[in-house]
Model the fold of this input.
Amino acid sequence: MKRIVILGSTGSIGRQTLDVIRNLPDRFVVTGLAAGKNWRLLADQIKEFQPSYAALSGQKELDLLIKELSPGKIPALGWGREGMESLASLGEADLVVVAVTGSAGIFPTFAALRAGKNIALANKETLVAAGQLVMKLSEQKKTSIYPVDSEHSALWQCLHGNNAGEVEKIILTASGGPFRALSTRELEGVTVEMALRHPNWNMGKKVTVDSATLMNKGLEVIEAKWLFGVNYSQIEVLVHPQSIIHSAVEYIDGSIIAQMGAPDMRLPIQYALTYPERVNGPAPRLKMADLKGLTFEAPDTERFPSLRLAFEAGRTGGTMPAVLNAANEEAVNSFLIGALSFKGIPDVVAGVMQKHNTLPTPSLEEIMEADLWARKTAGKIIKNLT
Done:
């Protein structure tokens, strides 16, 4: 039985991780669950999976959770950053699933690595902001980082058993989001409701908006650089609206190995949990005879400049990727509450990046300082725009 801790258990990835575990009860036991403020759903999860430990983001939510649970069936509880880090470093955990959205996932990821834990990583921001430090610590502690994103899981599978020195390039596929065919003028009328209607994937709000702007793919580009040790010149992004080929690797002899599957996150989640084994699970099967066609096109970085900004931030390095990520989080949050237009999101990110003086080899503390600076600067730019 593999003992699992899930950070972000009430989010989209967390819920689907529990679905995988629910379907494989002889393989996994849930040791710890951590959530943000959704204490009601966490209470349901605790009742079903009976973890030994649980945490929430605030003391108020923790008090409400305690009232919801039966006496004698309350796990050891924590809250805030300290509670999350305690769960991430539990001695009895075999694998920590980091499914927390945003830069809030950075500290518990470091806590897990310092404790020598293997990680199933679904949090993009950790590698985007602090990829070099994360990979160095993972190497020092001899831990493994298993990618959960469908694209990085695909690359992981395509690279398996092959010589990394024989890789010509990696190809990240993108659905293109719901606005792939819209003109620049039509993009000006995009609403929150429209942006949250992704054609292929069921994801959280922030990730869904990032997919619509192509920032999600930009963040994945930076992640891929650290996960697979490639240069940015070796990373290509292709828009693939059907979301059937999740990514591919081209080798120096011209061969391309691609990973295909139905667009369902439970497949990459399960692979990260069961690795190195493959087992039967809840993900739907792809019926190739039913496919009407697979198409690919180059992304339009004029209409969707977020992807270009991510490449620029990655190539600049240092604290710039953290600034890109933080500014984007603030801009997306403002869009979701109606305080910023859809097209204003990349404008804010670009404005913050232009004001930033990059530190080339930052510490974690300096990365988090740059993150905070970027959020404040983004707030000022958003205020001026509105």
Q: What stands out?
A: Residues 364-385 form the longest helix (22 residues). The mean pLDDT is 96. The CA atoms of residues 2 and 28 lie 5 Å apart. Residues 150-263+285-315 form one domain.
